[in-house]
User: Fold this.
Amino acid sequence: MDEVASKGEIWVVTKNGRPIAELHPYRGGRSTSPFGLHPKLEISGDIVEPLDEVEWKALA
Assistant:
């Protein structure tokens, strides 16, 4: 683990020759946005009023 942290390498952990996990250095800190997908969020129309069936299918 010290080598992964110091060199920034990613190690693949295997079981019976099959990859099962990756070990990588901790990146720390928060994501770029504290609200997850906030920068990609788009509000179209009234967010409180329910959609009728036609509008619901159009957005699907």
User: Anything to note?
Assistant: The chain has a mean pLDDT of 82. Strands lie at 11-15, 18-23. The longest helix spans residues 53-59.
